[in-house]
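Bench log, entry 3. Co-assembly request; chain sequences pasted below exactly as received.
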Amino acid sequence: VTAAGERVVWFHDWRTLPEGRQLGALHGTEAGWGVVPDAPLATRATPLLYLDVAAYDDAVRALPPEEVERAVLRRREVFRLGSSDVSRVLESVHSAMAHAAKTGEAEVFGRLATIAVELWEGGRFGPVETTTLLEATLDADARAVLEARDLPLGQDATELENRYHLDAEAMADFGRPQYTRALLHVPRRRLCRIAPRDEVLHGDFHDEVHVTGPDWIAGPWAEHAVETLRASGRRVDLLAFDPSPVAAWALETRAQIERDVQAAVERMSTDVPGVAKSFGRDLRFRQHAIRGQAAARLAHDGHPRAGDMERDVELERSQLLDLYARSPDHATPSFDAAIERAQIDAAFFATRSELSASSRSRWQRMATTLSQVTVKRP
Amino acid sequence: MSLKWDKYHSYDFAGDTYVPTIDGTSSEAKSFNSLKDDFDELRTLGSSKGIVDAGTTSVGTSSQGRDLCAIKVGKGSGTKVLFTGCHHAREWIALEMVFLVAEYLVRTYSDSPSTDQDKRIKWLLDNREVWLVPLVNPDGHKWSMLMERDWRAARGLHDLPAGDFNPPRLDGGTPRHITYPAAVYTGVDLNRNYGTSDWGNETFRAGSTHPTTSADPRDGGANSVWCGPSAASEPEVTAIQSLMSAQSFRAAITYHSFSQLLLYPSDGENDPFLQFVGKGMSSLIDEKGNNYTYESSNKLYPTTGDAMQYFWEVSSKRPSFTPEVRPTDAQGEQWGFSRLPEDQIEGCFRENLAAALALIQCAGFDAPSGPRVSPAVTIGSQTQIKLNVMPNCWKVFTGWTI
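Structure output for the full assembly:
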C-alpha cells in the first residue's frame, strides 16, 4: 500500500529538487535519488525510477548499500515511463472494480469496466477489419474454454464453449467457417522455474524473456511439454499460469528476482485456487474487452448477429462482476484508495514530458473521467 | 540523407495507437508509418526516375488476404536479387531493414550522380533488378500489433484431425512420439515451412527436449517453431517460392532479429564463392564498429524448412544469407528481445547497408570453376579473406560511403 502522489526519482543535483526527501547519494557527487511529491515534478524532465515508494522499498529490501546503488543506476537505464503508465492505472482500476464488485455496486463496476477496457485496448482495435476483431474474439473465447476445462477457475467451461460457438457462427458469415468445425487450439505457456541451469537450458530460452537464479531459469514453457521436460531429469516448479510476470522480473535486481520467484513458488504451493481465480478473472476481462468491441462493430455494420452478441456481452459483464467479487485482490485496501491512486496517477502522467502530446491529453481525459466515477458513487 | 527511420511501419496504418505490452496485460503508446502508403510514394518517385516498375505492388497474398507488398527497383533484369523481411511477425526491425534499403536505393539514384557513392548506386540499379518484400508475414505482424506483441508465426488456420506419429529427426536421433487432438490450429512458423529437401524433419539443440523445428501443431503460437502440416502449406511461403522460381534470382537475403549475426546455409561452410561473398559482407558490417558474428546457421541452432536454405537449394548454391540484426543477446534481455527501440533503427540500417549493396553487386558474379590459386588479401578492417576465387572482385567490399 503506497502513498499516492510521491515518486522515486534520480536527481543530478539535489538542490534542484528542494521539496523532496533524499534516499541515497552517489558517492562524492551531488547526484542521487529520492522521493518527490508530484507537484514540483510536474513538467520537469527528471528521470523517474519508481512510480511509488513501496516499489522502491521492495526492490532494495535487504540489499547492501553498494548493491542498492547498482540497482538504482540500472533502473535509471531500464525504466521507461511510456510502458508503465497504463499498467499502473489499470491495476488501480481493476482493484477498484474488485472493491465495487464485493459490495455489489453494479453501476459503479460497469463504469469502471468501461474505463478498464479503454485503458487495455487503447484504440488499437479501431482501424482493424471486422474479421480481425472476430479473430481476436475467438482466440480469447478458446483460451477461456481450454483453461476452464483444466484449471479450478470456478467458471463453467460448457457455457464458455457455447459462447465460442456463438462467435464462430458470426465469423463463418465472413467466409471463415473453420472455427465452427472444432475448437481453436490456443497454445498455453506456463511460467516455470526450471533447474538445474546449464548451457542447454540457456539455449532453450534464447528468444524467450526469462530470468536466472543461482541454479535455475524462470520463463515460459509450453504446457503440453512440461512433463517431457520433467522426464528429462529437470526439476520444474510452476510459478504462474501465464508468463506475464516475467517481463517485470526481467527489470529487477538479482535479489529481488529471487524473492519474487520464491514468493510465486510458495503462492502456488499454498493457494492454487486463489491464483487460478485471479488468472481466470484476467482472462475473462480481456475476453470481455474484445467481445465488446466486436459486438459494437457488428452493430455498427448492421450485421444480423449483432443483437445476439450484444445481449451476450451484457450477460458477460454481470458474470464478470461475480468473478471480481470472488477473486482475491490486494493491490489497494479500499475502493476510495484505488480510485484516488488511479486519479492521482492519471493527473501526474498528464504532466509528463516523456509521453507524447496525445498520451498526455488522454491521461487528462482519464483523470476527469475517474473523478466523475467517484462523484457518482452512491 | 534522412530516410524513414524514426518509427516502425505497420502494414496499412499510420499514426498514434496503443499496442500490447510485452506481457499482454496492458498497452503502450506507439506511432507508426504505413508500409502501403510509403511504398506507394516510393513507387511514384522511382517510376519518375525510370527505375521502379509501377505495376509491381505485391508478390502474393497472405492467408487472410493481405498483400505481400513489394517493390521492384532497377533496370538490370538479367541479374536479379531478392530481399525479404519479417517472416517472424514480432521482428519489426526486419521489416525496416528491407524498407530502408528500398528507400535508400530509390532516393539515392540519380541520372547525373556527383559523388562516387552515387555513381556506384547508379551503376547498381542500371545493371541489377532488386525485388524487395519487407513484410512476408502481414497477418502475424498485425496480430503482434493488436494482441500478442511477442507473436512470431503466421495466422493461417488448419482444421486437423487428431494426430499420432513419430516425425523424423534431422540429426538421425530417435524420433519423439507426438499425439495431438483434433482442433483448428494456427501459428505455422513461415521460416520452417519452405519446401527444402529436409522439410518436416524435427531439430533440437544437442541435449535439449525443446524443438527448434517442430512437427507438432501444438508448438504453433506465439513462439512457434511448427513447420506446418505440409511443405509450403502457407500462402505466404508459396508466394515467395513461386517468385524465386519465376525470377531466377542470383542472390537472396532474408532479415531477422536478434543476436547480431550474419548466417549462411549450414552446408555452405566449404563453398568458396559463398564464403567469399559472406566474409566480405561481414567485414563491411564490422567496419561500422558494431560487430556481427559470421557463422553457419547451424551454429545458432539447427532448423529445417527455412527461406535461406530453400533459396540455396533451388538456386544451385547462389549466395543466400540471413542477418540476425540488433539487438545483442544482452540488450535483448533488457528490451524484451524483439522490442528494439525506435532510436536504434537508423544505426541498425546503417551498419547493414554496405553489406546489402555489396550483395546486390555480387549477384552478377559467377562462381569460378577450375583451379583456385591466389595470395591472401585483406578486405575491410576485420576479416582476412583468401582470394582463391575471382581475384578482381574483392573491390566490391571496399569504398562504400554510408
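Chain B has ten helices and 20 strands. Chain B touches chain A through 57 residues (CB under 8 Å).
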